[in-house]
Amino acid sequence: MTAKRAVFSMSTVAATVGNKFHIGQWLLLSDYGEPARRYTVVSWACIASLALVVSIWLPMSALSLDQAALWEVADFLIYGAAAYAFYLIVSYRLRNSEDRVGICLRAALERFALLFRACLLISAIGGAGFVFTYLATATALPMQDAFLARLDAHLGFDWPSFLAAVNDLPFLPDLLGKAYQSTAALTEGVVLWLALRGRGERLAEFLALLCLSSIGLAVGMVLLPAAGAFVYFEPAPQLYDHFAGGREMWPFLDAFNSLRDGSLTKIDLSAIQGVVSFPSFHTMLGIVTTYALRDTRALLIPAVILNGLMIVATLPVGGHYLMDTLTGAAITIAAFHGLNYWCRPTASSREPRALLGANGGFLSGQMTRSHSIRQRLSGLRFGPLGYLFIATAACLAAYVALENLQRQF
Asked: Distances from the Cα of 157 to the Cαs of 178, 233, 261, 382, 384, in angstroms?
């Protein structure tokens, strides 16, 4: 057996048992190892949570899905099923091929399958997440822009002054605008790069961080709904006249205002706009994509530079408060530590846990779980940056609680 043949056999054994294909294991990326499976379980758990909330909330709201868009979703599912059938048929035909062409085709097929699974998961979290943001915005909760502006002021940050300072530089407005618009392309490029390289575990980690960050974004936008710094401060046109987009830099306001005043009642899944100001999702994507390339130096350095510019651009171009950006970073770092905490293998996780009638019965199982929790907590470690952002998030949560208590009493 050649080395390539051995690699292929190792990559598919977890999804097959006795020459039978198991779609559940395949969707969980089990063919790329136990860590990849754990990461993907976290991703699908996040998707299921958002989908459950949306399925309960949507019928109770004034919003509904556009029927025309549903046909486009159906087309996507049909094409996905066709791609899946193609994968199964070709895999079956090439299962015993020993020549170099057959091995190369199987390797290419595995890369295609990895990319397909990643796109399926991204589509699922994107669809559920976007519908959730529309539902949350349509509730028209009281705006918290004044509160976020006060937090910025406490940090010594003045958004209009920062906008004017960036606008006065001859090249920076255009540079930041292009960096901000590159986020989607960079994210797609990272997914494509990891899939083509066969980095299933790294791709699963990336997707899990993306899903966990999306959950954090959903919670954050409900706690502190905001229209954004541009709406709150209403800067004069001369403060942003060097930006190529002008007022068009903030196009989400059309959908945002229409949802809040009730004039938008149909959700078109093919033309959804972002409506979230707090926290900054661009900041989350910038950190997650950079982290996914951490061991590829040729790509890491450009990604750090580009995403660094993009995160700075979230303030003038994205119309975000500084607290939007800091909180987005804090949520992403918390997602990283949470994922590392729950998904890393431990000795206790490999031991059988007695629940009834064995070595002390149910009590023994409880003691085992308690010991496992203490062991995990004792092994939890944070870097200085992690402590900084977690402390910032904790202070923000405490401040929000105090503000709400003062309003009630």
From this structure: 24, 13, 31, 27, 23
Facing residues of 16 across strands? 21
- 3-state SS record for 81-93: HHHHHHHHHHHHH
pLDDT over 90 (residue 393): no
Q: How far apart are CA 127 and CA 312, in angstroms?
A: 27
Cis-peptide into 35, omega within 30 deg: no
Token pair recorded at residue 120? 């399926």
Determine contact, residues 186/103, Cβ cutoff 8 Å.
Answer: no
Question: What is the C-alpha separation between 155 and 90, in angstroms, rounded?
Answer: 59
Chain segment 331-362, per-residue pLDDT in tens? 999 999 888 887 766 544 433 333 333 343 43
Domain boundaries along the sequence of the chain? 3-345+379-408
Please, which residues bridge with residue 20 across strands? 17
* Residue 278 to residue 63: CA distance in whole angstroms: 22
Q: How far apart are CA 47 and CA 41, in angstroms?
A: 10
- The tokens of 51 are what? 């989908």
CA–CA separation, 288 and 39 (whole Å): 14
Amino acid at 394: A
Strand 266-267 relative to strand 64-65, pairing: parallel
- Say which DSSP state 198 is in: T
What are 195-243's pLDDT values in tens digits? 988 888 999 999 999 999 999 999 999 999 998 888 889 888 787 777 7
Mean pLDDT of 398-402: 50
Which H or E run includes 323?
Answer: helix 322-343
What pTM value is reported for the model? Answer: 0.77
Q: How many CB atoms lie under 10 A from the CB of residue 18? A: 4
* Lowest-pLDDT range of 123-127, 195-199, 383-387, 393-397: 383-387
**What Rg do the C-alpha atoms of the chain give, in angstroms?**
24
Q: How confident is the model at residue 187 (pLDDT cuts 50, 70, 90)?
A: very high
